[in-house]
UniProtKB/TrEMBL annotation:
Signal sequence segment: none
GO molecular function terms attached to this record: ornithine cyclodeaminase activity
Keyword Cytoplasm belongs to the record: no
The protein's name: Ornithine cyclodeaminase
Keywords, sorted A to Z: Lyase
Gene3D superfamilies: NAD(P)-binding Rossmann-like Domain, ornithine cyclodeaminase, domain 1
Lineage per the UniProt record: Bacteria, Pseudomonadati, Pseudomonadota, Alphaproteobacteria, Acetobacterales
Keyword Lipoprotein: no
């Protein structure tokens, strides 16, 4: 049945998973991560312009489904994302996502995009961006505890933005470590598979924790963290899920994205609600100090925030003309008379019957 061609206002640029992979491969992983980090940094620098709210979460015994909205006053963005650790046992991704940008002036969408791959990229870019401000100078070795879907993205981002040349891998599932080591074998990084967390952190100036199980866990104990280490804690991202022993937090400088959300979801849910933390945007804008000295332990208690997804979608939208990797999606009704939506339906029926 042929009804009618889409109207001029009905089409929205759509970036599919295939398009996203083509964009990444055309630009190059390291270059894209560096460019994406600059967008994220620019939006942290204008933090006060954004609408901010903790994400809207629907928790269940199986996982969580979340909406993450924000606006800078001109453009509105949101991301739909889930987190279901059991999914890998069923051949599904733990995390999937899609997102949209729209004009505040008229509410019309200007981009719809996959965000499963894009979330992995923006998480890694944000982590490495924070480490540029917080990690000890001259860091070259990172321990990566948790070698799932995010692992390689993190390694490549820290290589591109921070100059890491060695990554030490550990996961409770040796197959995950083998997978990550294979994927990183041609990356230019020295990859060292390890048999324990204790082995992985040896000689590391940066420790990234990125595990999936939604429970209070102690992936990293206080005795494993020496002076001057930067911890990139990205696995604790919902109520009841943490990775660091609280003793680490009590002696560290803690940096977060948006305090009200991190108090609910991050490592600091283990601490009193008035425990001091610094929001990362304050470091970016020079309103607060980052790393204070070479001996300080710093923690980036990252749970992911909507402005980072906004930055990522903004970056992708800017690549559409550069790459041509998108389709036009017939998403919005566009009647000849905006007050006559039902008439549009009737006329379509008449055309189809003719």
């Amino acid at each position: 049945m042929t009804i009618a061609a889409p109207g001029p206002l009905s089409l929205v640029p759509f970036v599919s998973v295939e398009h996203m992979m083509e964009i990444v491969l055309d630009i190059g992983v390291e270059r894209l991560l560096s460019e994406l980090a600059s967008y994220i940094e620019a939006d942290f620098a204008r933090w006060e312009l954004f609408d901010k709210t903790p994400r809207v979460a629907a928790h269940s015994a199986e996982g969580v489904i979340e909406l993450m909205p924000t606006s800078d006053g001109e453009t509105y963005g949101f991301k739909y994302v889930n987190g279901h650790p059991k999914n890998t046992r069923e051949g599904r991704q733990t995390v999937t996502a899609f997102g949209m940008l729209a004009k505040v002036s008229d509410g019309y969408p200007v981009l719809l995009s996959e965000m499963t791959i894009l979330t992995a990229l923006r998480t890694a870019a944000t982590s490495a961006l924070a480490a540029k401000y917080l990690a000890p100078a001259g860091s070259r070795v990172m321990a990566m505890i948790g070698n799932g879907a995010q692992c390689e993205f993190q390694a490549m981002a820290f290589k591109a933005l921070c100059g890491i040349d060695t990554v030490r891998l550990y996961d409770i599932d040796p197959a995950a470590t083998r997978k990550a080591a294979q994927n990183l074998s041609g990356s230019g990084l020295t990859v060292v598979p390890c048999g324990s967390s204790e082995e992985a952190v040896l000689g590391a100036q940066i420790i990234t924790t990125c595990t999936a199980d939604k429970q209070f866990a102690t992936i990293l104990t206080d005795n494993l963290v020496g002076a001057g280490v930067h911890i990139n804690a990205i696995g604790g991202d919902c109520p009841g899920k943490t990775e660091l022993h609280s003793d680490i937090l009590l002696r560290a400088g803690i940096f977060v994205e948006y305090t009200p959300q991190t108090r609910i979801e991050g490592e600091i849910q283990q601490l009193p609600p008035d425990h001091p933390v610094t929001e990362f945007w304050q470091v970016v804008t020079g309103r607060a100090e980052g790393r204070r000295d070479a001996a300080e332990v710093t923690v980036f208690d990252s749970v992911g925030f909507a402005t980072e997804d906004f930055s990522a979608l903004r970056y992708v939208r800017d690549q559409l003309l550069r790459t041509g990797k998108y389709a036009q999606l017939d998403l919005l009704a566009d009647p000849d008379d905006p007050r006559d939506l039902y008439g549009m339906l009737l006329r379509a029926g008449l055309r189809a019957a003719a």
